[in-house]
Amino acid sequence: MNVSSSSLQRPRSSSDLQGFNGVSSTFKETFTGSPWLMLLPKDGGCVLYNPKEGKKIHRELRDFPGSRILANSGYWLLLLDSGSYLVIIDVFSDKTIPLPSLESIASDTSKITRVGDRVFEKEIDDGHVYRELSSDVVRGLLWVDESGTDYVVVWFFDLPGHSYISFCKKGDTHYTDIPLFFRDAHFLDGLSYMVLGRYSLYISTSRRFVKVLDLSGPQGFFKDITEGNKPFSMLSRYQSWDSSIAVTTSGEVLLVESNPWQRDCFRVYKYDPNVELPDYACHTVLEVDSLGGEALLLDLGFTMPANDTLGIEPDSIYFTRHYRPCQLSPRDLDICVFNLVTKTLKRFPALDDMNLMDARWFLPGN
């Protein structure tokens, strides 16, 4: 998708499936198609909800009490369990993929030590030590292919000034560190937002410069593959608005902003290649008034082709929070679909009484 400046078998009932402890791959096929919601009630468990048909499927996650869901990819969840260990699970089959412990990092510049069930320390080669790093501030991203045979996990301690993110993929025995601070390029310091798509990690820095990393290859490998090997800034004149990044099906990076006071609209931008001295400009993007007929799952940070038959609405933004920033508390839950062309919101009142802790849109079948 290239965004122009002028456009840019029915599931069984929830009563049949409450508390199910695993289902076959054939059953999964009934969930492909339209976007679903993964709902996380405050009293635990997980509820899969199809807004198109109003069906709810309850999942207890009995094997992981006290766990916290960090991310999802299709049917797969990235969990941080009560002992501060990461694991990937299939919500349908109970299949699990164990991951290296958080302190299993191969790095020449840092070392993590577990000092308690939920507390860590990280020592940097310059002598600085991050103490009392709680697993409560661990955040993550996940990508799993449809078969569940390949995956990428990214995680980090979401604290101001923390200087690394870590990743692993299938076959890795430890995590690899990615630095977030640079002595000779401070405009690349820090982290405000990330999007993970397969082996590509899109990072928006504290100063809203975007770079793209390739995480494929042998263990410990990552490479900057930003076009022209030069990070680019994504800045609008509404810098007081909440801002995220998203990636289209063609790989184009978009800036997505929402009004932090009114909560009733979004603005979407693409990079303006004609800005003079973009590294010093305060406005480097062009606003678009559509998504080129695609739809955006803001929780995942990617667009997908619209499909009227499947209920994937064109030029629409599916979101559960207007903003999920790094180093700040996320905005309150607000589960909606916003049409960028008509500037209208569609809400889901059937969810109002569920006492939710979190929710995320996902596309069954990845």
UniProtKB/TrEMBL annotation:
This is KIB1-4 beta-propeller domain-containing protein. It comes from Arabidopsis suecica. It comes from the Eukaryota. Residues 48-339 form the KIB1-4 beta-propeller domain. Pfam families: Beta-prop_KIB1-4. Coiled coil: none annotated.
